[in-house]
Amino acid sequence: MTCACKAYRLPLVTPSGSLKYKIKPYLFIAPAVILAALFWWYPSAKGFVSSFLTMSNSGKVMGFAGLKNYIMLFSDRNFLKSIWTTLRFVLLFVPLNTVLTVLAASLTRRRSKLSFIPEYLFFSPVAISLSAYSLLFREMFRGEASVVNRIFGLDSGWITDPTGAMVTLVILGVFLDFGIDYILLMCAFRSLDKNIIEAARIDGAGGWSLLFGVELPMIGKTVMVTVFLALKDALLICAPIIILTEGGPFRSTETIMFYYYVEAFKSGNRAIQNSLSSLVLVIAAFAMIIYERRGRKRQ
Amino acid sequence: MKKTKAVVILVLALVMTASAVFAGGVEESSGIRTVTIWHCAQGANAGVFSVLTESFNSTVGKEEGIVINSIYQGKAGDVLTSVNAAAGTGNLPDIAMMDATAATDMDHSDYIVTVDQLGIDTKYILPCGISSYTSDKGLLALPFNASALLYYYNKTLYDSLGVSAPTTLDEMIEVAKVVGNSGVTAFVGVPATYELSTFIGAQNGLSYMVNNRNGHDGAPTEVLFGKEGTYAAFLEKWKELYDTGYYNPLVSGVTGEFTSGRCAAMLASSSNLSTIIHAVDGAFEVGVARVPIVNDQATGGTVISGGALFTFTDNDAVRTVLEYLISPESQIIWAQTTGYVPVNMRAYESSGYKAFLRENPLYKVAYEALLDSNPGLANVWVPSAYSIYYSFQSNVAAVLEGKDIDTAVAEMEAIVQNAIDTFAAQNI
Amino acid sequence: MSGKTVRKPVDTFKFILRKVLLVILAAMVVFPLVYMLSSSLFRPTDFNRLHLFPDTPNFANYAKALSHRYFGHYMVNSVGTALFAAVVRSVVVILAAFAFTHLRFKGKNFFLGALVLTLFVPQEAILYQNYRTVAALGLIDTWTGIVSTSLFSAAQMLLLMGAFSGIGKEPYDAARIDGATDLRYIANVLIPMTGPVVLTMGIQTMITTFNSYLWPLLVTNRPQSRTIQVGITMLGFVEASDIGAQMAALTIVTVPFLVVLALAKKRIETALIRS
To answer: Which of A203, A282, B347, C76 has most Cβ atoms within 10 angstroms of its Cβ?
Structure first.
């Protein structure tokens, strides 16, 4: 991410002397650097190095493993399945989430006398925490004999059935980010320069062409940010799965991070834990670089 | 705006003070020794466990200056996760209530304090309970909440259809057809490691799923349920049950299906007896019976299950607490309210408990099943137990959906063998 | 509607379509909440009957839920850690962003690059190592431990750097000539000028911290230190087939925030739209 970092020459030396002047910037960045070192660099480095070692469940180094841990990871059917499961989730969730939040924001982008009602309703999911939603959905979508089936006249097995469980998870995912995505998009709409919109309207753009031709493109940046965050959240989703399905039924909702959780915290398998963790870091790095390049190209 | 900055700093200071205040651990006032127990007692059982700890705190605890601090950490598997995470960080509790899935990790840990080290008298504890937690290191944990797998059924429905609880899987299939024809799902649930330890263990008088007495005499090195044909024998009958068409292979909400009356039978631990009776709330009469056997040679009985108290601190306070919890009086209170089987045999000499059993015959079934079982039976100690549990579920489900039994058995064998080998390579 | 004096049928149709869509979407968004409130008054039989409203309201669920001693702790811990994280992270990030955009020092690019590198590292992938670190620092069961991994965000720092650069260096030079210290400049000029961005960041931090489940689960062992997210999954009501009590518990921890949201909504919107 590029930024226009302008360097400022301090016109005056501070009264207490030049030493303070030299140290000050470092003091300013010190908290960030210490936190980053402690909670990002150190664990990443440790994990990366450990991924080439054989470690016991309690953390003792038992020897050098070379690439054996990575081979173990890729030979694990559950891991390969978790990749596929995660992709399925991402492909279902991200478009649905984007469409629904943009739709809600579009429908309420003009302030009117009673618009605070739908605005509040769309914002309200923010008040309901992740665990609450997950527990709620575990009951609402609990199986063939469930409220959702009754109210909507459906017949799905929901969380008792592999396909239904994935659908439930996708719907849950949408609800989890809906409130915050909505308010950001809605406020983005309302922040648009009214003059430009008026001008377009005078030019004859109305209703949908105004929305799709003028306003949506103008909030494009905000939409991209929400999509990007949704993508990141979807790839790494874990906590709602722990509460909703525990990876089931039959591992059909076991995503990559849930698999990591099981192996690291339940099975104590350090080999899988470290190799998977390092793999995720490397892939994240690649993804970032690609995103960065495309961002630069567009500029 | 100096004011805003001042406000911010004030808030920060407030928050940091509050965090310090709320961060403190349980303070040890002079003379009072705290014993922290992490437990997995849930549902109706949670209330009883509180009763036990509180009565300790107000009687023996008061006299000796000991206070039990009991904390619910989730299911038995979650307690293990917390214990594993806390190990080596100085945050271990004094006692943790866990089950057989914890045994492998505990056996290989350097922080477990065995019951032998603690010096607790165990001569009145159920022998099968002792053997279920004995490893090559000695008695790893003190059996506390013993249970057995039981066949729960809707007695009202069975009576009205003229059938009784099946004793063999063949009978179970016949009963399923009768029940199914009446419009009710006959059975719900998919067996996994827990159920299989009995279905397989009982075969041929006594069988093991893995060698070294199911991992008790040392880390297992070989998978037995494949080559001995015990898993296949079970799967054949189980597939026939599924083929009746009256079987609902759910893996979640199983208890709810049974207690709501939608399904007529399920397999569950005797420890859920009180919770289930309470949830059924009189809608029908609950019946329990021993687990149906795979075939006539499966005479081994039922594997003792349930949990035990694993100890990490060796001191007098801990000893006192443990002795209290396995005393006949405590065990009677515990068993009567939950459905667990008292681990202290002296409990059965109590006239009060005997009267209770006469009036609530359902609570006797698990105990009698255990007494009639081969003392050599053992629960399964394998590494990656959580993962293997779900692998078994998927494996059984695949067979039900039509997968060839021999292929499925071979796959499951490979999965367990792989877990065993990986653990050995990394830890030994 | 401006300008048009004649309303074409197509416009009316579009209008109705918009309203219908709005109603349907709003109803669906609010459905889980309604069910939660309603089922908190259910009896066990109501859950079997699968209807939307109870036959007779069962307030015993609330008695049962409230008998759980630690709700107060959960609420305080959740709100406290959310505020703590938001405030501290904002400070950390503001200071760093300021240094990178306004000051010159040796190794600036190196440090900037290293901090931006953390964007590549999702916390979820290094959970276990961070847990060991926090435990080794003695931060288990503390607010500091719960927020520790959320006190810095490279993404927010970059966002802020963009906002700061957008302001230009004239105000800063002017302030320096007036004799203002850097901190005073940040507090009195920079932050007010980038208000919406700082507020958005603060709100996002609060919501992320409030919603985190796995990390607080790992670093807390005692109910007194647990947050709402963790606490409500450990009430044991579901295991006792006491779903009504569980719903009552969920309602108890949700309603206060619904109220706060209603009160704060206008303010939040105004701040976000000001940009």
So the answer is: B347
The answer for residues whose C-beta is within 8 angstroms of residue B45's C-beta and 6 or more apart is B145, B271, B274, B275, B337, B338, B340
Q: Is C241 an 8 Å CB contact of chain B?
A: yes
All structural domains of chain A = 76-268 (1.10.3720.10)
Q: Per DSSP, what are the bridge partners of residue B185?
A: B263
- Per-chain mean pLDDT for chain C: 88
pTM (2 decimals)? Answer: 0.90
Yes or no: say if C112 and C171 are a contact pair by the CB < 8 Å rule.
no
Does A200 score more than 80 pLDDT? Answer: yes
- Give CA–CA dist C160/C179, Å, rounded: 24
Q: Domain B33-146+306-367 belongs to what architecture?
A: 3-Layer(aba) Sandwich (3.40)
Q: Does C181 touch chain B (CB under 8 A)?
A: no
Tokens of B309: 């108290």
A166 vs A142: CA distance, rounded Å: 13
**Cβ distance of C188 and B260 shorter than 8 Å:** no
**What residues 84-103 of chain C have any CB closer than 8 A to a CB of chain B?**
84, 87-88, 91
Radius of gyration of chain A (CA): 25
Domain ranges (residues) in chain B: 33-146+306-367, 148-303+377-427
Q: Note whether A132 and A179 are within 8 A (CB).
A: no
For tokens 């009072």, name the residue.
Answer: B32
Percentage of chain A lying above the pLDDT 90 cut: 57
Which domains can be identified in chain C, with CATH numbers? 1-68+241-275 (no CATH), 78-234 (1.10.3720.10)
Run of H or E including B350: none
- Residue C181 CA from chain centroid, whole number: 33
Distance CA(C183)–CA(C122), nearest Å, equals 31
SS3 of chain A: helix, strand, coil, percent, to 5: 70, 0, 25
Buried b (16+ CB within 10 A) or exposed e, B21-49: ebbebeeeeeeebebbbbbbbbbbbbbbb
Residues of chain C contacting residue A44, judged by C-beta atoms under 8 Å apart: 121, 126, 129
Residue A287, class by beta-carbon neighbours within 10 Å (0-12 exposed, 13-18 middle, 19+ buried)?
A: middle
Q: Kind of pairing, strands B134-135 and B138-139?
A: antiparallel
Instruction: Enter the tokens of residue B378.
Output: 């053992």
ipTM of the complex: 0.88
Taken as a whole, chain B contains a residue count of 428
CB atoms within 10 A of CB B117: 13
| Helix, strand, or coil (residue B187) | strand
Res. B20: pLDDT tops 60: no
How many CB pairs lie under 8 A apart between chains A and B?
78
Nearest-CA residue of chain C relative to B10?
C87
pLDDT: is C68 or B249 the higher one? Answer: B249
Q: Give me B382's structure tokens.
A: 């394998």
Contact C98 A136 (CB under 8 A): no
Q: Report whether B93 contacts B112 (CB < 8 A).
A: no
Which secondary structure element, helix H or strand E, spans residue A207, and what is its range? helix A207-209
Distance CA C114, CA B181 (A): 69
Query: What are the tens digits of pLDDT across the range A177-192?
Result: 999 999 989 988 988 8
CATH topology of domain B148-303+377-427: D-Maltodextrin-Binding Protein; domain 2 (3.40.190)
Residues B396, B402, B403, B404, CA torsion sign: positive
Q: In angstroms, what separates the C-alpha of C42 from chain A's closest C-alpha?
A: 13
The residues near A15 (Cβ < 8 Å, ≥ 6 apart) are none
* A→B interface, C-beta within 8 Å: 54-59, 62, 72, 78, 142-143, 145, 159-160, 245-251, 262-263, 265-271
